[in-house]
Design a protein that fits this description.
Elements: H1 4-7, H2 24-60, H3 76-84, H4 88-115, H5 136-139, H6 141-162, H7 169-185, H8 196-205, H9 208-223, E1 249-254, E2 258-263, E3 269-271, E4 275-278, H10 296-302, E5 307-312, H11 324-343, E6 348-353, H12 355-369, E7 375-381, H13 399-412, E8 414-415, H14 417-426, H15 429-442, H16 451-457, E9 462-463, H17 464-476, E10 486-488, E11 491-493, E12 502-507, H18 515-519, E13 529-534, E14 552-555, H19 565-570, E15 573-576, H20 580-588, E16 594-596, E17 609-610
């Protein structure tokens, strides 16, 4: 049954909105305070960032009378530089534009209060912004004003920061990223007294939601050892091996870094060349095997592949000295040798996902240098090999931040899983942080069961040496993209020597591995190469089984070279649905003839334990 107050806001005896105590006069006072507080909050934050950066710069220059300067937040120097380069005339113009927006908002709100008729909005949320979906954000004059006031301030700050000229790309990226973090954090939806849905819940439950919310916060702080490890799903609803990662198979090989799973066939015949999947070791492999109806592993089995998959160890202090070379030796190279013993077949096809794809690229370059031709087709899911334009993670990879990170990581021997989780959650803060702050802490509710978010919360650690190998060699120096730039197992490698057929797959909304960055590999590998672009992002765009009929993908089979992804896309053809069948059609042609299906354990390797194995069960 609908709430009549949502369709017809309550009025007092004077005809003024009763939602604001005291009628229209009190409402105007509240609007004034909300406006002043919003502007003051943003001004104080920018002032703080500038002062912190100047303190840090003074310390770096040796000034300050020997006193220890406070540690500046990582964004402070970037904002200080932006403020120093701001054109006063453009800043004044932005202020005037903001003031004009507020004037129009005041006029519209006044007209609405006097005539009781809706007024056209001055500022509206983006179509994909779900924060203001509750009817009160539109139907209640106070909350409608608050929403538009926030949007005006947010747009003013965003445009002011983006208009700063003369910044290097990394500084500009930091300003954009941390500016958005601040804008998202200050949204009125995130505070109990300025969120109408929370106020209604508080009235209906007589404050019980806030008490429950504090209990949820306390539990998350305890789980995070003093840091908020925000609960994103019902963690008791899933269990690895019970209702996620359930595709049958056996662990047939293991070493210090991996367990190798061979999955049970689902078809009487299979391609002669087995398929190896190298998942990322940032998070766990079962993103590729969540549930039977969205499992990429299960689907490839149904397509007739003998599937092997690497399950990486969740490292601890014992693995502190493991570097990128070790991940190659004990990862794909060890897996390829084990697959040959298990199947009697030397040749294979391989998939690498995200950082697993970066490792596959380095492995292919090393194999090319050694004239090792075992891999007959290499597929890269959302994987970067040229890190020039590597997306928003570059915000965290400048030398200053790496050095700040290094002291703690070297001491512990690994990067903590919660720190990794926070980094990736910040890339989609409204969805992965603030929506749960509202639901868990303000509404006092438990999050629903969701397999993808269970996987997202099942974080992993990263060994110290591997982490800094990766950050410095890839993100900072971009050595893999340079011929002979990186030495792997004592061998300078060159992606230009890789002549194995390669399939590069990217997703259009990926913030971790942007498709324009992924495409650069097309002009680095010797080829023949194929590129496909999918709708959605880093996870949903990859895990998109055909029967779901979701999203779309783009293909371009013209036999020509393109300088970049935009040129490729301009001549591409859009298709509905999943890209999986398109990839299968490409990979099956390189997978050999059909042979009798292989059962794990029937070959040269004795099973160690049932899939999904024990490495994947280790918690951070």
């Amino acid at each position: 049954m609908s709430d009549p107050n949502r369709d017809h806001p309550r009025k007092d005896t004077e005809g003024n909105p009763a939602d604001a105590p005291g009628g229209a006069g009190a409402l105007f006072d509240a609007l004034t305070r909300a406006t002043e507080q919003g502007q003051a909050m943003m001004s104080r934050w920018m002032e703080h960032a500038t002062k912190a950066a100047r303190s840090a710069q003074a310390a770096a220059n040796g000034s300050g009378g020997g006193a220890t300067a406070p540690t500046a937040p990582p964004e402070a120097a970037a904002f200080a530089e932006a403020m120093s380069r701001t054109d006063p005339a453009r800043l004044m113009a932005a202020q005037m534009e903001l003031w004009q927006g507020y004037q129009q908002l005041w006029l519209n709100t006044t007209r609405r209060l006097l005539t009781r008729e809706p007024s056209p909005p001055v500022a509206t949320p983006a179509p994909d912004d779900r924060r203001f979906r509750h009817p009160d954000w539109t139907e209640n004059p106070y909350f409608d004003f608050l929403k538009q006031s926030y949007l005006l301030n947010a747009e003013w700050l965003r445009n002011t920061l983006l208009a700063v000229e003369g910044l290097d790309p990394d500084t500009a990226r930091k300003i954009d990223f941390y500016g958005r973090q601040m804008i998202d954090a200050l949204a009125p939806t995130n505070f109990a007294l300025t969120n109408p849905e929370v106020l209604r819940e508080t009235a209906e439950r007589k404050g019980e939601n806030l008490i429950r919310g504090m209990e949820n916060l306390a539990a998350d702080m305890k789980r995070g050892n003093g840091r908020p490890a925000i609960t994103q799903t019902d963690m008791q609803a899933f269990e690895v091996g019970r209702n996620v990662a359930v595709t049958p198979g056996k662990v047939v090989f293991q070493n210090d870094l991996i367990q190798l799973i061979q999955y049970a066939p689902t078809t009487p015949q299979v391609f002669s060349r087995p398929l190896l999947i190298i998942p990322p070791w940032i998070n766990k492999f079962y993103i590729l095997d969540l549930q039977p109806d969205n499992s990429f592993v299960r689907w490839t089995l149904d397509m007739g592949y003998t599937v092997f998959l690497i399950s990486w160890v969740n490292p601890d202090k014992r693995h502190a000295g493991k570097g990128f070379d070790d991940y190659m030796t004990e990862g794909p190279l060890a897996a390829l040798d084990a697959m040959e013993r298990a199947t009697g077949v030397r040749e294979s096809t391989v998939i690498g996902y995200c950082i697993g794809g970066t490792l596959l690229a380095a492995t292919m370059a090393w194999m090319a240098a050694k004239e090792d031709r075992r891999v007959k087709a290499a597929t890269f899911f959302a994987a970067q090999v040229d890190f020039t334009d590597a997306g928003e993670l570059r915000v965290f990879t400048d030398e200053g931040q790496v050095k700040m990170l290094e002291e703690q990581v070297r001491r512990d021997g690994f990067l903590d899983g919660l720190a990794m989780a926070w980094t990736f959650n910040m890339l989609r803060a409204n969805d992965l942080i603030w929506s749960f702050v509202i639901n868990n802490y303000l509404m006092g509710r438990d999050p629903p069961a969701f397999d993808l978010l269970y996987w997202n919360a099942d974080s992993t650690r990263l060994p110290a040496r591997m982490l800094f190998d990766y950050l410095r060699n890839m993100y900072q120096e971009n050595l893999l993209a340079k011929p002979g730039g990186i030495t792997v197992l004592g061998e300078p490698v060159d992606l230009g020597r890789v002549t194995t057929p390669a399939f590069f797959q990217a997703t259009r909304e990926d913030h971790i591995a942007p498709y324009r960055s992924v495409y650069k590999a097309m002009n680095l590998f010797a080829g023949p190469n194929r590129f496909a672009l999918a709708g959605s992002g880093h996870i949903a765009g990859i895990i998109n089984p055909p029967h779901k009929n979701k999203y779309q993908h783009w293909i371009n089979e013209k036999r020509k070279d393109y300088p970049d992804a935009d040129a490729w896309l301009a001549e591409a053809t859009e298709r509905d649905g999943s890209w999986w069948p398109y990839w299968h059609d490409w990979n099956r042609r390189r997978s050999g003839k059909k042979v009798a299906a292989r059962v794990p354990g029937d070959g040269g390797l004795t099973p160690i334990e049932d899939a999904p194995g024990s490495y994947v069960r280790v918690k951070s």
